[in-house]
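User: Show me a protein chain along with its predicted structure.
Assistant: Here is one chain, sequence first, then structure tokens.
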Amino acid sequence: MNITRNNVDALNAVVTVEVTKDDYAGQVEKVLADYRKNASIPGFRKGAVPMSLIKKQYGKAVLLDEVNKLLQNSLNNYLVEEKLDILGNPLPKVTEDFNWDAEDYKFEFELGLAPEFKVDLTAKNKITKYTIVADDKMIDEQVERIQKQFGKLISKEKVEEGDDLRGTFANEEKGINNTVNINLDAFKRKTDIKKFIGKKVGDVVTVGTKGLFDDDHKLMDYLKVDHDDVHGLDIEVSFTIEEINTSEKAELNQELFDKLFGAGNVTSVEALKGKIKEDAEQQFATQADQKFLNDVTEFLIESTTFELPSEFLKKWIQTVGENPLSAEQAEEEYAKSENGLRYQLIEGKVITENGLQITFEDLKTYTSDLIKKQMAQFGQMDPTDADVENIVARVMSNQEEVKRLSEQVMSEKMLNLFKDKVSVKAKEVSYEDFIKEMYGE
């Protein structure tokens, strides 16, 4: 067998595999001999069927199968030995007059080669690294929510200012039908609040969505509409009142503090506010990190320029799915996936050049921390090491979970690398301002 490669250009190559009879004949004879031992053909005893008949009936199929196996194994070994970094899979070139009756064969495969490029993490950019702070307004609002949540709920017959309502926002044309709990103070306009005053359970109030709340993003929560739809949304929605409640706020005392954070962990209103601020900013840090990671990703895709074997990849896309795609469909799929492919290549180079690896201990530690956080959310603040280790063992016995967690660990390593290497502008903002920055408003 002889394998040669012709580099068409820096991104495309053709590999030619020449197979002679000596390469496959022995294996074909062995398979046919096994067929003969087990063949059951009328008029012949089992194992006594003439080989000529076996070859006539099965010879061509066995030949094709064995040559194909030999071809695939040889090609795969060649790619490994030559250390070729290819994109997609080799594509066989169709030969119209291919002759399977010949004894020697020549096969050609197209290859798409990964491009050579450099990634400069220190390049000048316009990326902002946000630190989100919980301001006094947010903390005070959270304290009030806690007091209402743990306060005494009092049912009422008629709506008055400051009451809590449970009901359903609806608009048939837009497909809105969402049941929510809402305080009257959530509405921005006094005129809208007045529409509810004096109403009873079962009454329906109609309001306009334009300027309904102090922030249009709240329409996403109360009406369950997408972000792209909330801006400029100017429709009428009905609100059917199902419950009217007011709450007698819980006192900010040690009993409430212990109920929230465990006995003795918080002992004053100041400590309560400090804990709220700490917990909120931990959550905000995750959101800020995700935006930073997204912004660095976009920057790297835009700033790291290289060519791809696009025509090869479009042909390859036509063949990889369950159903073959047309050239037009493949063109469309390629356009949608090109940036993703570019970032895969960039990410791979960053990982290699910076020696980022995931060890078993990395994965185990990450999983353990994740489980402790989840247990804490359900009130298990101090689980035993044995309990955590047992859960970790069960999680890591699931290959799909291990794959998912490995991706998260690598994402965290990439994030830390970017924080260390990428020069950015630091900016401290409130959560409200962060949302505006995030959506470019």
